[in-house]
Amino acid sequence: MTTNPSNFFPGVVRTVADVAAISRGEAEIFELVREGEYAEALTAREIHLNGSADMGIHANGDLLLFVREGSGTLTVAGESFELSPDCAALIRDGEAWALSSTSPFKIFSVHVPGMGPYARKIAKPTIGFQRVVQQGITNKGKATGNREFEVLFDESRGSSGATMFVGFIPTSGAPAHYHLYDEICHIVRGGGTFVVGDTKVPIGPGSTFMVVPRMLHSIVNEREEDLWILGTFRPAGSPAAAYYPDGRPAPGYDEA
Fold first, then answer.
1. Is 131 helix (H, G, I), strand (E, B) or coil?
2. Which of 28, 42, 147, 234 has the fewest Cβ atoms within 10 Å of its own Cβ atom?
3. Is residue 1 pLDDT above 50, yes or no?
4. pTM of the full structure
5. Shortest CA distance to 230 belongs to which of 76, 106, 118?
6. Based on the number of CB atoms within 10 Å of its own CB, is 207 exposed (0-12), middle (13-18) or buried (19 or more)?
7. Which residues have a Cβ under 8 Å from the Cβ of 21 and sit 6 or more positions away?
């Protein structure tokens, strides 16, 4: 699908091939979802690094990271944490951070603004904190169709404004549905088709797209392997919070 390099619209799929890299030390940064015309918007970048880079001081809200490829070290506020594929990390407002890779990194990051009136309204009190979370340690939940999901970050691990999860979509995939939250989606592995109305777009590792509230969409997996999708949405809540076109809650979502 054709993209406008200066804006990002719901339903448009973008990869690093669609944007120019911004250099920061030895890191290349690709801005995949920008603010555009949206106030207090979630934004997303992909970071490629083979070496080390001082990423500066993060400001205005949380920064959620997910390692798609590579391994190395995350240094935050003087502490170091090992990163490996399929782990996630949280950088908080005002924290200085740096990366160093032992094998080339491909890291997806989502910025969750925290200072505007909307961000303050929807923020949840945190009841715990964890800097790094390895995918696979949390029990899976059920979502639309025969999908499963695993929550990586929410208020229980220090993210007050958004939920980050990995969804596992088997062959066939989810039917058309909608959410009441804003979401940025990133394909971690596998592939398939992103469907919005009559538009069908192929997706694979690195594909990124945005889903806005009440936008009917579906993801179809035509392959034998599971499709892994990383979702980050706000207001924070359950990844099972979805509805079918007639308004019925999807199985696995208890509105109460």
1. coil
2. 28
3. no
4. 0.91
5. 106
6. buried
7. 28, 29, 30, 48
Place of tokens 């890779």: 101
Distance CA 165, CA 154 (A): 9
By residue count, the chain amounts to 256
Domain ranges of the chain: 16-122, 132-234
| Residue pLDDT, tens place only, 145-185 | 566 889 999 999 999 999 999 999 999 866 789 999 999 99
Q: Per-residue pLDDT for 10 more than 50?
A: yes
Domains 16-122 and 132-234 share a fold: yes
Type of residue at 242: A
- The model's pLDDT over 94-118, given as tens digits with 9 standing for 90+, comes to 999 999 999 999 999 999 999 889 9
132-234 CATH: 2.60.120.10
Partners of 113 in beta bridges: none
For 178-226, write each residue's pLDDT tens digit: 999 999 999 999 999 999 988 899 999 999 999 999 999 999 999 999 9
CATH 1.10.260.40, domain 16-122, yes or no: no
Six token digits for residue 95: 């924290």
* Sequence-separated (6 or more) residues with CB below 8 Å from residue 11: 1, 194, 196, 199, 209, 210, 211, 215, 217
Residue 123, C-beta contacts closer than 8 angstroms, at least 6 positions apart: 114, 160, 161
